[in-house]
TrEMBL record:
Residues 149-230 form the Smr domain. GO terms for molecular function: RNA binding. Residues 267-276 have a biased composition (Basic and acidic residues). Residues 109-140 form a coiled coil. The keyword Iron does not apply. Keywords: Coiled coil, RNA-binding. It comes from the Eukaryota. This is Smr domain-containing protein. InterPro entries: DUF1771, KH_dom, KH_dom_type_1, KH_dom_type_1_sf, Smr_dom, Smr_dom_sf, Smr_domain_protein. Residues 255-276 are annotated as: Disordered. It comes from Trypanosoma cruzi marinkellei. Gene3D superfamilies: 3.30.1370.110, K Homology domain, type 1 (3.30.1370.10). CDD domains: KH-I_PNPase.
Length: 285
């Protein structure tokens, strides 16, 4: 019996798997023969309908996941949604603060700004939790070791911070120990327009800056060679980390613009102060 299913060139890699692991596993567990043929297509053959249909179901499941991949997992997705809600609330509070300031109510504006800052801190913490959950889902949660890092689902700053941490751990191995470290940046097939390959570009920049040799395995995968030094290295801040810090400071300055102005002396008191006639009792407006 034979079945043929058409797939895209991108899906070929998912069906075959790393080093052919996925396609071999499908064949060993179903007893069917699975081949990639021109088209590209997947040809499934076997000595029984049961075996062929079992393999076909496995291939179709892989294709379905690739067409609409889950890069966050249930926990990561939930935390991201909660962070987004907090982000929307923060924006609304800043807008309200601006409106109050324009109305001349500096005190109310200041209160709203402080509330927005606190909500912003909560949002940042929630995103950190989400990033940790997503990274675990795509790596340790799938049985991957310290020689593999899938960045899917992570934002650039999150991915770069985690990449630095993982490289530090590999460098902390005994001196001379070599680790072939595969970094999955993704090829950008599911990225929003204008954001394709951002993770790959940032990863390449980081590896070059750290003098870590690497080769491009595929459009969305890099293989880096990390050599152990026997001691943990302290990584310098990446450009993305610096940019994030600069962005935070810029937001602080914007927020400060909504704060009430410094207390002013009454005009007549100002003149008296200049003449030294206040005696320490100048009236504040």
């Amino acid at each position: 019996m034979e079945r043929v299913i058409e797939i895209t060139r991108v899906q070929v890699g998912h069906v075959v798997g790393r080093g052919g692991a996925t396609i071999k596993e499908i064949q060993s567990t179903t007893g069917a023969s699975v081949q990639i043929i021109d088209g590209p297509s997947v040809r499934i053959t076997g000595d029984s309908e049961e075996k062929v249909l079992a393999a076909l179901e496995r291939v179709q499941a892989i294709v379905a996941r690739q067409e609409k991949p889950d890069y966050e997992g249930p926990v990561g997705a939930k935390l991201r949604r909660e962070a987004d809600v907090l982000g929307a609330r923060r924006s609304k509070l800043f807008d309200e603060a601006t409106a109050r300031r324009n109305e001349g109510d500096a005190q109310a504006a200041h209160k709203l700004v402080e509330e927005a800052k606190e909500v912003g801190r909560q949002m940042e913490e929630k995103n950190k939790e989400a990033a940790a959950a997503i990274a675990h889902y795509n790596n340790e949660g799938k049985g991957k070791g310290d020689d593999y890092f899938d960045m899917h689902g992570l934002r650039k700053e999150e991915a770069m911070t985690m990449l630095q941490s993982r490289v530090q751990r590999l460098r902390a191995k005994p001196s001379g120990i070599v680790t072939e470290f595969e970094v999955i940046t993704g090829a950008g097939h599911h990225s929003a327009p204008g954001k394709k390959q951002l993770l790959k570009a940032a990863t390449v920049t980081y590896l070059k800056a750290e003098n870590i040799p690497f080769t491009e395995v595929s459009a969305g995968s890099l293989m880096a060679t990390v050599i152990g030094t026997g001691e943990a290295a302290v990584a310098a801040p990446t450009t993305t980390a610096v940019a994030a810090d600069a962005s935070a400071k810029m937001n602080e300055k914007k927020a400060a613009g909504a704060a009430p102005s410094a207390s002013k002396l009454h005009p007549k008191t100002e003149k008296r102060k200049e003449k030294g006639k206040c005696g320490g009792f100048c009236t504040v407006m």
